[in-house]
C-alpha cells in the first residue's frame, strides 16, 4: 500500500505521541538503510561520503554514519550548513554523538572539497521536507553526487524528487538504491529511473499509529 507524505507525517507524529519517539524512528531508519546497503557493498575500509541536510533526512544519514563506522568503513560526513542550524532535537542528538567519535570525519558548512575518492555516497540531503527549487549548498551536493563515479544510495528518496508527486525539482539526484521508511510514498515509484533498487523498510512505528489516518 502506498501512502501520502501527509499521512506519513501524521503517522510519525501519532507514533511519537504514543511514546515511540522520533529519535527511535530515526535510529531504526538509519539501521535499516545500512542493512540494505551491506547487501550490496562490503563497506570495510571503503570511503563512504555522507551528505547530510539540516532536517531529519540528514539525521537518518547521521545514524548511518555511526552504524557504518561500526562496520569499519572510512566515513566522512559533510553537513550541508552550520551545526547550529540543525533543525531537530533528534538530528542534534545524533550529531553530538558523532562529535565524540574519532572514527567518523565530520565536515560542515556551505562549501566542500574532498581529498579522497568516495566508493559510496549517501544522499541524506532532502526527503519528505522538500519544497521549491533546490537552494545552495544542497544544489552543489546533488550535482557532486551526479558527477561522481561510485555507488549512490538515497535515504528515503533521491534528493530533488518530490516523494508525493513524483515530480523533480530543478536539480535532482540519481541513485543506485533507495530505501524509504514505514510505507512507500506515492511519488517515489514513479521514478524508478532515479531511485534504482527501491525498498520500503519498517522502522518500528506501532501499527496503531495508523488508526484514523489510513
Ligand atoms: N516521517 C517519518 O516517520 C520519519 C522521517 N524520517 C526522515 O525525516 C525526513 C523528513 O525530515 P524533515 O521533515 O526534517 O525534512 P527534510 O529533511 O526532507 O528537509 C527539511 C530541510 O530541507 C530544507 N529544504 C526544503 N526544501 C529545500 C530546497 N528546495 N532547497 C534547499 N533546502 C530545502 C528545509 O529548510 C529543511 O531544513 C524523511 O525524508 C526521512 O528521511 C526518519 O527520521 C524516520 C521517520
Ligand atoms: K535523500
From TrEMBL:
Record-linked SUPFAM superfamilies: YjeF N-terminal domain-like
Chain ranges of the YjeF N-terminal domain: 8-211
NADP keyword on record: yes
Domain of life of the native organism: Archaea
Keyword field: Isomerase, Metal-binding, NAD, NADP, Nucleotide-binding, Potassium
GO function terms (MF aspect): metal ion binding; NAD(P)HX epimerase activity; nucleotide binding
List of residues binding (6S)-NADPHX: 56-60, 127-133, 138, 156
Coiled-coil region: none
Catalytic activity: (6R)-NADHX = (6S)-NADHX; (6R)-NADPHX = (6S)-NADPHX
Binding annotation for K(+): 57, 123, 159
PROSITE patterns linked to this entry: YJEF_N
Required cofactor names: K(+)
Comment on bound cofactor: Binds 1 potassium ion per subunit.
NCBIfam families assigned: yjeF_nterm
HAMAP family in UniProt: NADHX_epimerase
Family to which the UniProt record says this protein belongs: Belongs to the NnrE/AIBP family.
PANTHER family xrefs: NAD(P)H-HYDRATE EPIMERASE
Role: Catalyzes the epimerization of the S- and R-forms of NAD(P)HX, a damaged form of NAD(P)H that is a result of enzymatic or heat-dependent hydration. This is a prerequisite for the S-specific NAD(P)H-hydrate dehydratase to allow the repair of both epimers of NAD(P)HX.
Protein's UniProt name: NAD(P)H-hydrate epimerase
Amino acid at each position: 500500500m502506498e501512502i501520502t507524505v501527509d499521512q506519513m507525517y501524521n503517522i510519525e507524529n501519532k507514533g511519537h505521541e504514543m511514546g515511540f519517539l522520533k529519535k527511535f524512528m530515526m535510529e531504526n531508519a538509519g539501521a535499516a538503510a545500512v542493512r540494505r546497503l551491506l547487501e550490496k557493498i562490503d563497506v570495510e575500509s571503503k570511503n563512504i561520503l555522507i551528505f547530510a541536510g539540516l532536517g531529519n533526512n540528514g539525521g537518518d544519514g547521521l545514524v548511518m554514519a555511526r552504524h557504518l563506522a561500526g562496520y569499519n568503513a572510512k566515513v566522512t560526513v559533510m553537513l550541508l550548513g552550520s551545526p547550529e542550524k540543525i533543525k531537530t532535537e533528534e538530528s542534534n542528538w545524533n550529531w553530538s554523538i558523532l562529535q565524540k567519535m574519532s572514527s567518523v570525519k565530520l565536515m560542515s558548512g556551505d562549501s566542500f572539497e574532498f581529498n579522497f575518492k568516495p566508493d559510496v555516497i549517501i544522499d541524506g540531503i532532502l526527503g519528505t521536507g522538500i519544497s521549491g527549487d533546490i537552494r545552495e549548498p544542497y544544489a552543489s551536493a546533488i550535482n557532486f553526487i551526479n558527477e561522481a563515479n561510485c555507488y549512490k544510495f538515497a535515504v528515503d528518496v533521491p534528493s530533488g524528487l518530490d516523494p508525493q508527486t513524483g515530480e523533480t525539482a530543478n536539480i535532482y539526484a540519481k541513485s543506485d538504491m533507495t530505501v524509504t521508511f514505514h510505507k512507500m510514498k506515492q511519488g517515489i515509484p514513479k521514478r524508478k529511473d532515479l531511485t534504482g533498487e527501491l525498498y520500503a523498510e519498517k522502522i518500528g512505528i506501532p501499527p496503531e499509529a495508523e488508526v484514523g489516518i489510513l
